[in-house]
Design a protein that fits this description.
Length: about 230
């Protein structure tokens, strides 16, 4: 059994894939099942927007337009979160890095801590699927559990299965128009990371077109090997 409290053994797992690929859904599963802490830059940025911080004020319009927030802002937020003690035993990065600049900065940050990216897993889905997933997505405002109107509905309409909350939210950027900008941003700025991590020999691709449970099974097989 690996001593995961030793920084060099703490897994750093990256989930790559276009918006709607299932990164958040699967990162949450990896956190619950394997104790990897989910770090979502989208969630961190939305929290900054809601709190009205300077970074949040700068990010708001960019996010609403479906463009990428500047590397400086994202890196500052991510670096602070990664330094928190709960991240010491392993993380799953969801939605980060999204540019080559972010990937290089992450490598530098990790190497200063005696760490490196353990694996970058690409969730492979086509563009049509991604639009359907995004436009049907909703989230519990109380506990953050994610749902989909057709693929993962709540058991009782309007009530969260996890916490019983009734404050269901749809993201402002989950509309058909913004989705196309987000998809363009993915292809132009994030897809090159497949090559980046391929060259580092840490890239694994999995088919994410199937149902949530079958993607979760494949990911669990990978995660099990990293955490034992
Ligand atoms: P991402 O974090 O990559 O943007 P999410 O995990 O939020 O994507 O998933 C987007 C939407 O698609 C959510 O509503 C989620 O419930 C649903 N979803 C995720 N994975 C699958 C899947 N394999 N099959 C069907 N729906 C899925
Ligand atoms: P997500 O929750 O991952 O779908 O991200 C929502 C939005 O937040 C994106 O469309 C971007 O505007 C912004 N965002 C999230 N993560 C990043 C990142 N790593 N780099 C730049 N922008 C990001």
């Amino acid at each position: 059994m690996k001593d995961l409290t030793h920084p060099q053994n703490a897994p750093v797992v990256i989930l790559l894939g276009p918006p709607g690929a299932g990164k958040g859904t699967q990162a949450r599963m990896l956190e619950e099942k394997f104790g990897l802490v989910q770090l979502s830059t989208g969630d961190l940025l939305r929290a900054a927007v809601a709190a009205g911080t300077e970074a949040g004020r700068k990010a708001k319009a960019v996010m609403e337009a479906g463009d990428l927030v500047s590397d400086d802002i994202v890196l500052a937020i991510l670096t602070d979160r990664l330094a928190e003690p709960d991240c010491a035993t392993g993380v799953v990065l969801d939605g980060f890095p999204r540019t080559t600049g972010q990937a290089e900065a992450l490598d530098k940050l990790l190497s200063e801590r005696g760490q490196a990216v353990t694996t970058a897993i690409s969730l492979e889905v086509d563009d049509v699927k991604m639009v359907v997933r995004i436009t049907g997505r909703f989230t519990c405002g109380s506990c953050g559990e994610g749902y989909h109107k057709d693929f993962k509905p709540t058991k009782v309409a309007g009530i969260c299965d996890m916490c019983g909350g009734t404050d269901m939210k749809q993201r402002a950027d989950d509309n058909a128009q913004t989705v196309m900008s987000r998809l363009d941003a993915y292809h132009a700025q994030t897809a090159p990371l497949l090559r980046y991590y391929g060259e580092q020999d840490v890239l694994q691709k999995i088919d994410a077109m199937g149902p949530i449970d079958s993607v979760a099974r494949e990911l669990s097989t990978i995660a099990r090997q990293l955490t034992v």
